[in-house]
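Q: Sequence in, structure out?
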Amino acid sequence: MRYLPVFLDLQGRRVLVLGGGAVAARKAEPLARAGAEVVCAASFAPELLDGCALAVGADAAEADLLALAAAARARGIPVNIVDRPALCSFIMPAVVDRDPLTIAVSSAGIAPVLARLLRARIEAAVPPGFARLAALAETLRDEIRASLPDTAQRRRVLERLFTGRVAELVFAGEEAAARREALAEIAEAAAGTPRGMVFFLTAATREADLLSLRALRLLGEADVILHDGAIAPSVLETARRDAEREVAGPGLAGPLLVRLAGEGRKVVRLLAGPPPPPELEALAASLRPGLVVPPC
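A: Exactly. Output:
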């Protein structure tokens, strides 16, 4: 790792952007969105660094860029000179903004185009709904801490909230229902009655890269993958490494699904074709309060 990734609080802090062209303007924009007091200058003078928390150089004369880099380093001010890694003490990453979530991708200044391509892939995999999910978690923080004093228990509950029914409701735009569901799950956890979940997924393809983003997410979050034996190995490999994988033929998995979900596990029932009605009927007839089987 060439650089330590950090996130700076620039609210109300002075930041110098040296240069007067389009690149300098692009660098100034996210700094302003982060709450910085951006000062722009076309040429460098040492006094421009007074009170600065950060400095960026772009679209300026070579002598000015060299002087900025040297002066900022001498003062201990982080400095970035665009496309000049040797003059930088920090790298401006490609950013996926899902405020309050922020994902930064850096190639250590070597291949910024590659970093931008990776950012595009991450943006596709992390929809804006994750921002709403994080915002909901913030409103539940005090309730979770008060109800669940044990740190390990809080972590397990938060994992369920971020990967289960609550997340599905948030992604569907039903924040009020998601909050009610989250409060119910917190209360159940505090009472010692864990809530599991079962998702039915159909994976007729033998190519993992043809799976939907939702299918990939659920497979990556599941505690147990219960499949019918006809699933391609490449598809099963997309699951979490520590997830349990069990084979159960169509129509034979109902009681096992109920038991696993009753233990508070997140289960994916993975089939090469549509789930057989008898299995769904047996599962529905066996549900107890608190067991959730959302459609998928």
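Residues 229 and 247 are 6 Å apart (CA to CA).
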